[in-house]
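yo

u said u wanted the structure for the complex thing, so here. seqs first:
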Amino acid sequence: VSAVADDFDEFVERHGPSLLRTAYLLCGDQHRAHDLVQAALEKSLRSWSRVTSADSPVAYVRRIVVREQLSWLRSRSSTERPVADVRTDATADATALVDARDVVWRLLAELPRRQRAVLVLRLFEDLTDDEIAEVLQCRPSTVRAHASRGLAALRAHPDLQQRKTEAT
Amino acid sequence: MTDLDQLVASTLRDRAGDAPSEVRDLADGARALHGRRRRRRTVAAVTATAAAVAAAVVIPLSLIDGDGAPAPVTTPPPTTAPTPARTQAVAFHGVEIDVPAAWSINEEMCGTPTADTVLRDVTVVLSCLRVRPEGISTVELRTGRPDWGPRRNVVTATNAQGTRLEGAGGRFYVREAGVMVDVNVTHPALREQIIDSIRVVDVDSNGCRMHGVRQTLPFRYGGGIDLDPALVPGNPDRVAICKYTGTWLTASSTVTGAALHELLRVVDDLPDGFVRADPEYYLPSVCDEPDESSRFVLHVLDADGSGRTLWARIGVCGNLGITDGQHPHALTPELAAALNGPLHTPYAFQGHLIPAR
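structre next:
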């Protein structure tokens, strides 16, 4: 039992920050990210030997984090507020340029959960479509469809279109 | 990778820096959850009943004693003490509380309070072994998770404002905001009044947004000289000063009267154009870290409620000064003092400033 405990502690110490980053990008809320990772670790603890025998234990737990997030949103209403309020004040000059990353972050919050998860796993975690499909328990073609729709939604947004126009 | 892919990827990398990084209690928390689930499986029916009862019970905070155990009902706190007729709202990092209007903010010496005061984000102090005067009351607001580890002696309760608090005695953790509130107040009735006033808000009583202010925009395009020197034209009625570290509000205040006139005088005297810290006098690598500059949003309001917004930044990295988005003005020691003085907050910036290009 002690060896498992040490092993578990070491795993959390080593991989906790990276799991928290993934969880935060998936849900956009620091506290919920913490809760997601904690819940995923608890599930991992139930069958710790299965985690440690996996090819990549951290990928195994990350998969639980992602699924936990998807099921969390299914079972609870999301409290995440899209960051439409990133602008400092309602009276700010309407012509002011908007920070593109703020726009993207806000738009990510508005995407359907699976589209957001695909973009996070593909563009932050650098997973292949096959690997993402395995995490999300769907076909690679579905992953590509989610990615395509998510990016199309971002691309179509007026704020990003305006930036593109200004850039050209 | 398309441009949009790259933009999304860079956004995710940037935002990943905002993710929580504290892993200390993750393992313990998972174990605690694990233990509870195992027990729940064992005695499911009994636990379900108990949970139903517990969910309906709101534990009055006044019944919690210092170590978190319920205090005997036969010893209610005295209620004869005067409760303050006038209060002031103090905001920090998503949380707002009401304290007596006569209290000061950050009235301390070397981290030791010297009068009835709210200590707001006093995280780094030099100890000089001062003794805390007897009989004074304080409320300390700071970020960070509680250090009480496993939840022994910790009670979760909902206060009069509907805010869920975890803690015991006078120490509470507002999970939703990630803020510790340490209420060290001599009189029990006032103590309970303050605890009941703890609330999570999006906008504080000064009109400052609590969160989500990144405020990089007006400082990206600095250095231009504008012939119109009037950053604040007319005669405003008041200015709400909102101070942010990262994206969170750490202090706020509304200035009127003499303090307002002093602030406007300083702003009117500022040189045109932003300034930057002279790179010969600091390590540029410090700016590779998350920017810890103090950022300010100033809501300048006329008597009829109309107004304008100014942004200011004090620190080491990037363009420094104050602007309305069109007219950049330089950071000076006087500006730093005028913005931080009403908030009673410390500040620091590199002393060698050069014009921003």
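The longest strand of chain B covers residues 238-245. The two ends of chain B are 33 Å apart (CA to CA).
cya
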